[in-house]
Design a protein that fits this description.
The structure is a homodimer. By secondary structure, the first copy, chain A, is an alpha/beta fold. Helix content of chain A is about 40%, strand content about 25%.
């Protein structure tokens, strides 16, 4: 009986302690959200990054400016250490404005065609490329048509990003194979060029860039993206005049590799400094637009995490690192370098959180993968209910993926994705497309989650 | 033993039936969401309502056009009945563009002042109104200052809608007392006019209108809203020159009551037609802007509910009514009429759902109040998890509030509110401010919830 009594007391005590700690946590989390909303520093920094620096593809002068800008912000925050990490990055440049037109057609030669080169594509040079057009809905469909149908032609991947998907990223992933691998697969069948329908569910006038991957030992053919409204029109035109030709001219090229940097700020852990928690976004962006949602937002939110820690005098028990990753868009060299340094230095990276899905209202944080035990973290869900944020399984982000082999738990902020592809990789991804409250709520969510990780472990 | 066995069997069977039904429901709900996203009719109708008709204050020709437009849409849907309900509404008109300036000041007489009359306000007429300005942060502060300080002056309610609140509606409700009651309270102390800071957390150039209420037996003094950026500037100017004067001129007036209509469409219940479920928004809007989020969105979503029912061949067991309420903004006469007719006809209104918080990504449906048992409905939460929507206690909406005394459960769609007050009651509340996916997800959420109510009761 005494034993049972002792046990019951112990449970009650633990329960009491737990409740007290949850209560303290919920108060601190409320402070975090209120601070983020009433002192919108991430939003102010983002304005500078977008308006004074602008689009910042790896290797560009603007990317260098962004490195310096974020280093300087972090220098003002009173962190324990701010440093850069050298990274060799590909240096792709777009060159002069792309051109495209329909030729050998009486009806459609004046049709507007808004295009842009795909990132990493070779250019056509002054002579351009011209050919009949073969329209397909998938790489599989093209392969089934075979060399006879494809050789000497321009392949038009008219893959629609369908609205019916609840999560637009699902649609993006399905429709995106043409952009990612279309050029190499078409080249294998002798095509001379590739046109992909822009990746957005909207019918609009903005070509969406994004990177392609050339497979090894395959001839590199030029590739462009076409605005969705023009893709619809081209598809109709082809039904009427299947023999029309398409001409395009791009002046992009890949220059020799160049030196750039990840930018890193550190708050040293007070009790377990060897356990490292990373939070970041990618500092590079496409040259079209200002890289506001993709991924200026995630970068500024990540710095905001450290600022709010300092502001609220939160002293993390574990080490918090804020990382601006370079070159996510067309090489991932920053993410690879960060993980490789971690491995060389035998660092213990317990968790990494990336924000790279836009500065929209946060809906969830995805945590870990199926092989990892993340139940302790998922149990914090209750603390996020007042903010309409859920903690769910399966997280990550491109830049932090290389940390996974080190056993790191990868987490990702998941904001409302409904508007993301209205702006993604276009001239429309500008500061004005970001709402202050939405951006700051994302920063608050990241801060609150990392506060718990830093204090309680994973 | 046999008894226990029988009991266990029964439980298992019931459990099986339950699971089967939940599975069927989740499939139908998925169909509802996919239909809403892939056939964006609410969005198309909203474009017409905003661009062809525009702002539609009760009593205006545009309000009449909106009545006819929505009646005609419903007529095409194959509902069992479409009809209008006559409502007498106040007829307030804004008249010529308002003017405001600072006078008796050397430094500030050229300061821009973007203003608009508050709805229901009396106008100043050609002679305008002029006076020294007394700035207060609350009605309480003004009352404490007393008649001596207020008489003959213009009261400037500079009540800030604070960003720190997680829910912007909380901030709106707190800061809104100046707009709602400031004129009457100031009049009691002898003020000659009222200027209120616009209700938005942003610092911008758009005056936000909205209605005031004149108390009975109190002199009616004119009132205007001032853009937040100008409110900040006026406050600074007053610190430098406390004796400056403020002049404004408004030509608004209240005309005699006029006849308008609620528009109602009905799908008759197959099993319990006497149990009525209403879904609606308000068809009137402010004259500034196009009433896109407020509340064209809610109206078009409500009609979309009926369209999706028909499209998916959902035959509701209970009667579904789609209601376009007239005159929410400055009188609520449509909502009052609908409830009064329900009472006269002794109708049994089991539940009413309003969408009047903008066409943004849905976050929750609020259901019932503390006196009502809504546990059965809250238990449907699981079905909404894939859509990041929660079912929570406490719902409602202005237009359906008059149904509450009939025992009706009031529910409200709660979308993401972070951008709502960027547009609310201004020239900025236009079709372009609405995202198709967000609007349609709201419609899908309403449809899914009402499908469950119509089939399973409350």
């Amino acid at each position: 009986m005494k034993r049972i009594f002792t046990f019951v007391c112990l449970v009650l005590c633990l329960h009491g302690a737990c409740a007290q700690s949850a209560n303290k946590d919920s108060l601190i989390i409320r402070q975090i959200y209120e601070t983020a909303l009433s002192e919108p520093k991430a939003y102010e920094w983002l304005e500078y990054l977008c308006k004074k620096i602008g689009g910042r593809l790896a290797g560009s002068p603007e990317a260098s400016a962004a490195v310096e800008f974020t280093r300087q912000i972090m220098d003002t925050l009173g962190l324990d250490r701010v440093y850069v990490q050298e990274v060799k990055v590909p240096h792709w440049v777009r060159g002069r404005q792309e051109k495209a037109r329909i030729t050998h057609s009486q009806r459609f030669s004046n049709m507007p065609l808004r295009v842009c080169a795909l990132g990493n594509s070779v250019g056509t040079g002054e002579q351009g490329v011209e050919g009949n057009v073969i329209e397909v809905k998938s790489i599989k469909e093209m392969i089934a048509l075979g060399k006879g149908a494809v050789a000497g032609k321009i392949v038009f991947f008219n893959m629609v990003m369908e609205n019916r998907h609840i999560n637009p990223f699902t649609a993006y992933s399905i429709a995106g194979e043409g952009r990612r691998n279309g050029a190499s697969e078409a080249s294998k069948l002798g095509a001379v060029g590739v046109v992909v329908r822009s990746l957005t569910t909207k019918i609009d006038e903005f070509p969406h860039t994004g990177s392609l991957r050339y497979a090894l030992n395959v001839g590199q053919i030029p590739a462009i993206a076409l605005a969705t409204v023009d893709a619809e029109a081209l598809s109709k035109a082809l039904k009427i005049e299947p023999n029309l030709k398409f001409y395009f001219e791009t002046h992009c090229k890949m220059l020799p590799e160049i030196t750039s940097y990840n930018v890193i700020g550190e708050l040293k852990g007070t009790e377990k400094p060897e356990e490292i928690i990373s939070v970041g976004g990618h500092l590079d962006s496409w040259d079209l637009g200002e890289g506001a949602h993709d991924d200026g937002a995630g970068c500024m939110q990540s710095i905001e995490v450290a600022r709010i820690f300092k502001k609220l005098n939160i002293k993390p028990k574990r080490t918090l690192r804020v990382v601006m990753f370079m070159n996510e868009e067309n090489g991932l060299k920053g993410g690879l370098k960060y993980a490789s340094e971690a491995q060389i230095l035998k660092e213990k990276h317990i968790l990494a959180l990336e924000s790279d899905a836009g500065g929209f209202t946060p809906q969830s944080i995805g945590i870990g993968d199926e092989e990892q035990n993340v139940t302790k973290m998922l149990a914090w869900s209750k603390l996020f209910e007042p903010y309409h944020v859920t903690l769910v399984r399966n997280g990550g982000g491109a830049d932090i993926t290389p940390l996974r082999p080190l056993g790191t738990v990868l987490a990702g902020l998941r904001p409302d994705a409904n508007r993301y592809f209205d702006y993604h990789h276009t001239t429309q991804d500008v500061f004005e497309a970001v709402n202050m409250r939405e951006l700051q709520l994302g920063a608050a969510t990241m801060t609150a989650f990392l506060y718990l990780v830093a204090m309680e472990g994973i």
